[in-house]
Amino acid sequence: MKVLGKVAVITGGARGFGKAFSEALLKRGAKVCFADIDVSGGQQSQRELAAKFGETSVHFVKCDVAKEEEFRDLFRECLSKFKKINIMVNNAGILDEAGWEKCIDVNMTAMMRGTYLALEKMNPENGGEGGTIINVSSFAGLYPAHFLPAYVATKHGILGFTRSLAMDPLYQSQGIQLATLCPAFASTNMVTDIIQGEAGSRQKILYPDVAIKITENMGICSVADITDGFIELVEKENCNGDVLLIDKKNGKQYQFVNKTTS
Ligand SMILES: NC(=O)C1=CN([C@@H]2O[C@H](COP(=O)(O)OP(=O)(O)OC[C@H]3O[C@@H](n4cnc5c(N)ncnc54)[C@H](O)[C@@H]3O)[C@@H](O)[C@H]2O)C=CC1
Ligand SMILES: CCCCCC(=O)/C=C/C=C\C/C=C\C/C=C\CCCC(=O)O
């Protein structure tokens, strides 16, 4: 897709990947409506991005994606401000093995809701123009990790859900593409808080000693490495059904290149 002039909705955009993805799209001439549960972080990012790309290009919406009405309001607000939605990025995610139910609500249920809402708004029969939906899974969507079982379950779910919808001829006929991004460890707060031992962060994973060994072996990607893969997916002419794994040692690797089971 050519990004210039398109409108994107990005969840979890106050920091980390979501903020970097917002900036990368703005740089290429898109308008971005980003959402986050973190109001002060969101407002701060809004100020920074507006200073670089203009007040009229970027809009922050306070939204807890686990709350259906707030998610619906996000779409309403984006449409009222920017009139269309061409790119949807379900990026908001948490890691919390002790609070695994919340992990399912945010990583899985909200990702599904965001996808269904985007499909509705992108449908040409509803006035949409088609579009691209990128769902952010993880290396943990492709491989097990006994220090993150609930997180792994949600990330496998994202992969299965997104690949399945990508096979549906209905959405293909509407000009809608769906792809999955699978980053390995990257240097956002989700990882750095644990490494630096920020209060409560290590309680969110099991077996931290195993986890640190694995990060040492695999290495840690920069946010720029992951953003580069994200933009590659969005800008591809056909990203439908793609699963892009990115890790420090091997870089970008497309998985399941024979996309369908038929
Ligand atoms: N950092 C990493 O190594 C990897 C991260 N991921 C995934 O990338 C996505 C982004 O993560 P990071 O940027 O690393 O994390 P992060 O923790 O830096 O950023 C996540 C953002 O999502 C927001 N958020 C959390 N719950 C929310 C909710 N209920 N509603 C709205 N916003 C909410 C947070 O406030 C935060 O701004 C997540 O889905 C994560 O699982 C995937 C693979 C690797
Ligand atoms: C192999 C699974 C890769 C999953 C990457 C991902 O999606 C998110 C990872 C988020 C956090 C990483 C969790 C733990 C590793 C980090 C540091 C452990 C440090 C423990 C310590 O005692 O210092």
Automatic annotation (TrEMBL):
The keyword Metal-binding does not apply. It comes from the Eukaryota. It comes from Sinanodonta woodiana. The keyword Oxidoreductase applies. It catalyses: resolvin D1 + NAD(+) = 8-oxoresolvin D1 + NADH + H(+); prostaglandin E1 + NAD(+) = 15-oxoprostaglandin E1 + NADH + H(+); resolvin D2 + NAD(+) = 16-oxoresolvin D2 + NADH + H(+); (15S)-hydroxy-(5Z,8Z,11Z,13E)-eicosatetraenoate + NAD(+) = 15-oxo-(5Z,8Z,11Z,13E)-eicosatetraenoate + NADH + H(+). GO terms for molecular function: 15-hydroxyicosatetraenoate dehydrogenase activity; 15-hydroxyprostaglandin dehydrogenase (NAD+) activity. PROSITE patterns: ADH_SHORT. Signal peptide: none annotated. Keywords: Oxidoreductase. Belongs to the short-chain dehydrogenases/reductases (SDR) family. This is 15-hydroxyprostaglandin dehydrogenase [NAD(+)]. Catalyzes the NAD-dependent dehydrogenation (oxidation) of a broad array of hydroxylated polyunsaturated fatty acids (mainly eicosanoids and docosanoids, including prostaglandins, lipoxins and resolvins), yielding their corresponding keto (oxo) metabolites. Decreases the levels of the pro-proliferative prostaglandins such as prostaglandin E2 (whose activity is increased in cancer because of an increase in the expression of cyclooxygenase 2) and generates oxo-fatty acid products that can profoundly influence cell function by abrogating pro-inflammatory cytokine expression. Its EC number is 1.1.1.141, 1.1.1.232.
